[in-house]
Amino acid sequence: MNLRLELKIAWRYLGAQRRSLFVSLISLFSMCGVFIGTFALIVALSAVNGFEAEVTHQMIGKDAHFEVLNLRGEQIFHPDSIAKLIMQNDKDITAYSPFIIYKVGVSSKRVNDGVVVYGIDTETAKNVIDLSSKMTVGDFNLDSSSIILGSILAHRLRVDIGDKLVLQTFQSPDEIMGGGPRMKQFIVGGIFETGMYEYDGNLLYVSIASLQKLLGMTGVSGIQFKVKNPWKSDVHAEKAGSFMGHPYYATDWKNKNQTLLKWMNYEKFIVAAIVSLIVLIAAFNIISSLIMVVVDKTREIGILRSMGLSEGSIMRVFISMGSFIGLFGSILGGIAGLGLCIAQERTHFIKLPADVYMMPFFPVQVQMMDVAAVFVIGNALCILATILPAWKASAMKPVRAIRHE
Fold it and tell me: Is residue 153 predicted with pLDDT exceeding 90?
């Protein structure tokens, strides 16, 4: 019974009354602050999650889940036999593909540049990397004379499908006396676009046999593997490295991109901390509004105390007031934030310039754990903000409060 009475009094004190209209307006503004803070937090965290998911998807699509290489940088011979042994030791590996990676010079009719070239087998690479779905022009198919390159690199070299490119090796000082650099001409057979500048602006793909001929190799640089769960790639990489032993080692896509992944984790924390200041400001507004209610309702508090309400009941009345403000503000803000994020996920109505950002639309990904954390923390701050004014109200002496002018 006392609880129902306390909630009723709290609700009445929050309502707009002629004598305390200004106080009620301050409470309304406090609720708006909680609303805006909750809305902004949900949208900001969903945006960070969206960017992280999109960038991670693009990294996984271009990179294999993990690679096995030689610690000394030497060639790996008989890669098929080695890959089959590794797959027999780890049943969660679903596919493999050998590759060669090298830094070369590339020349078109108008431009010279230095890039990274991959030698791959397109038939096995289709099962390991998702580059075939990123093709914008041409096919993901390599013969002895064809080459595939990123869209930004193609623009920089001013080439299109059917144009010719020349790859040439760089030489160390010891090799200069032995003759000129090796060179080979290729024809552009395809252009891909991942949305990642580092990939689209610096990578070329040719067949393994073509690159072996250019470099004078008979082996490969390493072997790429795909596993069932890419988020556990580090476990599989460690298992493969331990199985093969020295001089082989394995590295996964998370290790290769650890700087970017750490930055995205820090970004989420920083964004959440900054936007949380809005909720904190709203909590301070709740303190000021409740203190004004205490001053405005001093006589009423004295009357309630004289009628038998305990100090604890008075304290709960004002805590309930702050809880109402936080609860309604966070619910309305949460509904608005979730509504905006769901609409963006389904319709992509907020666009981004594709030539500036990695994707053509503003990515969002709602995670209910984030929503729950925002709701709980926001309401906890609002309840904590009520303690001081609630204590002040409960500490009033009934006689003094009634005689207050």
Answer: yes
The answer on pLDDT for 227 being more than 90 is yes
How many C-beta atoms surround the C-beta of residue 2 within 10 A?
A: 12
Q: Which run of H or E residues covers position 302?
A: helix 298-306
Q: Which long-range contacts (CB under 8 A, 24 or more apart) does 338-343 make?
A: 338/42, 338/366, 338/371, 340/39, 340/43, 341/42, 341/43, 341/46, 341/366, 342/366
Burial letters for 61-86: b for 16+ Cβ neighbours within 10 Å, e otherwise? bbbbbbbbbbeeeebbeebeebbeeb
Residue 361 Rama label (left phi>0; alpha psi -120 to 50; beta): beta
Residue pLDDT, tens place only, 383-396: 888 888 888 877 77
Half-sphere exposure of 57 (CA within 13 A, CB side): 14
CA distance 302 to 219: 91
Is residue 152 a contact partner of residue 83, using CB atoms and an 8 Å limit? no
Q: Per the structure block, which two tokens stand in for 203?
A: 């990578």
User: Which residue from 169, 163, 164, 166 is spatially nearest to 106, judged by alpha carbons?
Assistant: 166
Tokens of 344: 């963006």
**In this structure, what token pair is assigned to residue 223?**
């072997």
Prediction pTM value: 0.71
DSSP for 14-61, written as a single string: HS--STTHHHHHHHHHHHHHHHHHHHHHHHHHHHHHHHHHHHHHHHHH
Report, as an integer, the average pLDDT of 5-15: 75
Exposed, middle or buried by CB within 10 Å (0-12, 13-18, 19+), for 21? exposed
Contact between 69 and 249 under an 8 Å Cβ cutoff? The reply is yes
The per-residue pLDDT for 24 is: 67
Band of pLDDT at residue 337, cut at 50, 70 and 90: very high
Contacts of 24 (CB under 8 A, 6+ apart): 14, 15, 16, 17
- 41, two tokens: 């937090």
247 preceded by cis ω (within 30°)? yes
Residue 262 host element (H or E): helix 258-296
